[in-house]
Specification:
6 strands, 49% helix, two-stranded antiparallel sheet, Arc Repressor Mutant, subunit A, four-stranded mixed sheet
């Protein structure tokens, strides 16, 4: 049985300016000028040339935007925007970056070394594929049999595990030492095997080869007992091991890695005569100025019934509106960022005065949203992609947001302060007898922090602090 009915729904639709503003708020400053330039270059009706004077062919007066209303064009002659849309562009064009580097990439360095080897074309193809499969740290995280399958299906190269293993062994002889390792143990062994035969080096080699599990678990007495060496000999070997490089791929700068980007602050904070002064990088908000021939099209449309003229006028008006929305969104972006940053500075005033983490108050997105009147999602967009340069360093805005816990006095302290106190306890502990989590709970309690054991374990993991057993030193 088919039934019909009416249903009333209330939905919220964002205006073009709101949508533009949301996108621009997420845009860091280093990308903003590129975005402005791209927007202006892609809009054919806009004049980005500055007027040269009254005597120029297109004077300033001629080039000013003509506020011709689209309402002057009859509704029955209006062409819907979807019919004027160009169909051969994607929804979001990928931004193009021209890069130039004089530094040698990690992959290119290995390829250059490969070029000096006497190999057949087939062997070289296999070796090049292996080099391309290494991760940023220089490790090969995939098994040889997987590489055999990939070579066949992705590169059309027939090979076997024996040949892949042989080419991998060859690459492991390249610089930097340790490259091509499949795990940390192999990486360290590749490096120690290139050293001489001094007693401490040989001891280190045997530890890594035969007693690696005991070594990483810091079962030092077991190693001494099984190898028949003294504690001093073990210490000398460990000194050799800890000087090895666990990430050989990081020795050579990979200038082609998109993740290695310079941070350009979106805010600057200075302490001037005891007062905090915040500023933002200056950028030029473009002026909406229409090329003379397009403003003439709008004027002609007011006095013409020609369909083609009115279609052209509709297109021009749409492009002018798009530019005006963009400029207005830029202004709203500036106001939103400025208001949000000032609210954060006021909230964390004591911290920004000297950079002491003990003065960093618990602060969540909701706190700043309530102060500014903005939505929480807006505050999140500002905090997630922006940086501020202060007189004590450069920080991402999300650094200043943290939850809080109460101390014994009932005061709320930030989790960052708790982590700082935890880090100081671990740094000052006796490394021959490091503090367990229970002992850390007790020590934190003496400092006035009521923290549960599971909280200590969570913070310890977040700070990258290993368990007590693994912090033990000789």
């Amino acid at each position: 049985m088919i039934s019909q009915g009416l249903e009333l729904k209330q939905t919220q639709r964002l205006s073009p300016i709101q949508m533009q503003t949301i996108k621009l708020i997420e845009t860091p400053f280093q990308e903003l000028e590129q975005k402005i330039r791209s927007e202006w270059e892609s809009n054919p009706v806009l004049d980005d040339e500055q007027p040269q004077g009254r005597d120029s062919e297109d004077s300033e007066e001629d080039n000013e935007p003509k506020d011709v209303s689209i309402d002057d064009i009859k509704d029955d002659d209006y062409i819907p925007s979807y019919k004027l849309r160009v169909n051969n562009w994607g929804k979001d064009e990928r931004e193009h970056y021209d890069t130039f580097s004089v530094k040698e990439s990690f992959t290119q360095s290995l390829m250059d070394q490969l070029g000096f080897q006497q190999l057949s074309d087939h062997q070289r193809q296999v070796a090049e594929f292996i080099v391309g499969s290494l991760d940023d740290d220089g490790y090969l995280r995939r098994s040889c049999d997987t590489l055999v399958d990939d070579l066949a299906f992705r590169a059309g190269i027939e090979t076997d595990e024996e040949e892949v293993e042989a080419m991998l062994k060859l690459i492991q002889e390249f610089e930097p030492a340790g490259v091509g390792a499949r795990d940390l143990r192999e990486c360290l062994l590749l490096q120690i095997n290139r050293m001489g035969d001094a007693p401490d080096i040989e001891t280190a080699r045997v530890i890594l080869r035969d007693h690696y599990q005991e070594f990483i678990n810091k079962h030092y007495q077991k190693i001494c007992s099984r190898m028949g060496i003294t504690l001093d000999e073990l210490k000398a070997a460990i000194k050799r091991i800890i000087k090895l490089n666990p990430a050989p791929g990081g020795q050579i700068d990979d200038s082609y890695n998109d993740r290695a980007q310079q941070v350009i602050p979106d805010f600057y904070l200075e302490l001037q005569d005891g007062e905090l002064v915040m500023s933002m990088p200056r950028f030029k908000i473009p002026e909406v100025r229409v090329k003379k021939r397009y403003s003439e099209i709008l004027e002609d449309a007011q006095h013409s019934n020609d369909r083609e003229t009115k279609e052209a006028a509709t297109y021009v008006k749409q492009r002018i509106d798009s530019a005006k929305w963009f400029v207005e969104a830029l202004k709203q972006r500036q106001q939103t960022l400025e208001k949000t940053m000032k609210a954060i500075i006021d909230f964390q005033h004591d911290y920004f005065m000297d950079g002491d983490e003990a003065n960093l108050k618990p602060m969540v997105l909701k706190d700043i949203a309530e102060i500014t009147g903005f939505d929480i999602s807006t505050i999140s967009r500002v905090a997630n992609s922006k940086f501020i340069e202060t007189h004590f360093g450069i920080f991402p805005l999300k650094y200043f947001f943290s939850e809080g816990l109460e101390n014994k006095e009932g005061e709320t302290v930030s989790t960052r302060e708790l982590k700082k106190a935890l880090r100081e306890l671990v740094d000052e502990e006796d490394k021959n007898k490091p503090l367990t989590d229970d002992e850390l709970v007790e020590a934190m309690g003496k400092q006035g922090y009521n923290v549960a054991r599971r909280t200590i374990a969570k913070y310890r993991d977040q700070l990258g602090i290993p368990k007590a057993r693994l912090r033990k030193e000789l």
